[in-house]
Amino acid sequence: MKKILFECAGTDIKSNIKALQRLLDQIEFPYKKGATVGLKLHWGEIGNLYFLSEKYAAVIVQWLKKNEVKPFIFDTTVLYSGGRRTGVDSLMTAYEHGYTPQNMGCPVVIGDGIGGMDVVKIKSGFFHFKDTVEVGSIINQAQGFIIFSHFKGHLGSGFGGAIKNLSMGFASRAQKQLMHSDAHPELNRSKCIRCGMCIDICPEKAVSWNENKFPIFDLDKCIGCAHCIAICPVAALKVFWRISHEAFQERLVETAAAVWNVIKNKSILINALINISSECDCMKGKNSIIADDVGFISGYDPFEIDAESLRLIGSEVFDRAHPDIPWRSQFEYAVKIGMADKNILNVIP
Ligand code: SF4
Ligand code: SF4
Predict the structure, then answer these.
(1) Domain ranges of the chain
(2) Nearest alpha carbon, ligand 2 atom 4
(3) What are the pocket residues of ligand 1 if the criterion is a CB atom closer than 6 Å to any ligand atom?
């Protein structure tokens, strides 16, 4: 089995960059000269404060170029309106966040096309997705991948790292919707202070006032993005899963597994355990930093690298940030479907 590597974070961005460079220097370079290699990352939603600086991706691009391959950077379009729904919007957001071709030294592209329709079906064969899952066609257009993931909390999955970057990160919009389809907000009226923030933030205009001035949610319009839940200042909203809490975790894992089965022989994974915020880089506005910077970790299996990331950070911070999310079931399910060894369950605190 190939090794998981780790380098401790520094005290500022300069020393963090050095830590990343030290990590890269130790990685066995897996790509052939001249290969086209896609660097999959998340360049942050407009208004998010904790997405990764483009300087880290630039270091990885330099390493790839030094080793004579042809890198490019990509992400896919998303479900909700905002700064990344279409390819054009998403590229503008990337540029605004520093991910320009000039800063990167390589092309910056959209993995499912400018209209989000450049997609392919790949084999799945699992319980929720029996035959196929749908992902950006980029999966068939590179000879290698680096899955570069910002490790942080997440409202739906408890934590977000390599598993989520492979899953939501490669999924077409339709596949993203299939993964989210059971999740909708549920209001606790006794907590609601009627501030209207959920109405303002909803990208689908699915929230409005009822006659008593409480928010009501149009579930036909709702896409389950959970932005309203994240922004509510008094935690009056929680995720209501129509089937079970575990269904989202399992669908996430199935999609990640299908993607990984296609690219595992030509990919490496790097998790950045820095800016460890309570919420995803998709969320606008201020959420909290829940743990100190830890460093950078690389590996060759998404479940192993995420389990090790949780061990290094300490899983209690994710339990505290998202007490209702059964995130451990991602690993249990990965074992169940044969994507991870059962020993992985001992790694997770
Ligand atoms: S954001 Fe929360 S407190 Fe404000 S109106 Fe919506 S549910 Fe009520
Ligand atoms: S989860 Fe909330 S913010 Fe997202 S679409 Fe549904 S109602 Fe709107």
Answers:
(1) 5-173+245-347, 183-241
(2) 225
(3) 187, 192-198, 215, 232, 234, 236-237
For 130-142, the pLDDT digits (tens) are 999 999 999 999 9
DSSP, res 155 = T
Mean per-residue pLDDT pooled into runs of 10, the chain (349 residues): 87 97 95 97 94 98 98 92 88 98 98 93 95 96 98 93 98 84 83 94 91 92 79 79 76 97 97 96 85 97 97 96 93 97 92
| 214 C-alpha to ligand 1 centroid (Å) | 8
What is the rounded distance in angstroms from the CA atom of residue 158 to the CA atom of residue 321?
A: 8
Residue nearest to atom 8 of ligand 1 (CA): 192
**Protein residue with least CA distance to atom 4, ligand 1:** 195
Check residue 241 and give its pLDDT: 61
Which tokens in the block code for residue 74? 């990509």
The SS3 assignment for 303 reads helix
The second-level CATH assignment, the architecture, of 183-241 is: 2-Layer Sandwich (3.30)
Q: Does domain 5-173+245-347 sit in CATH 3.40.50.11440?
A: yes
With contact defined as beta carbons under 8 Å apart, do 26 and 297 qualify? Answer: no
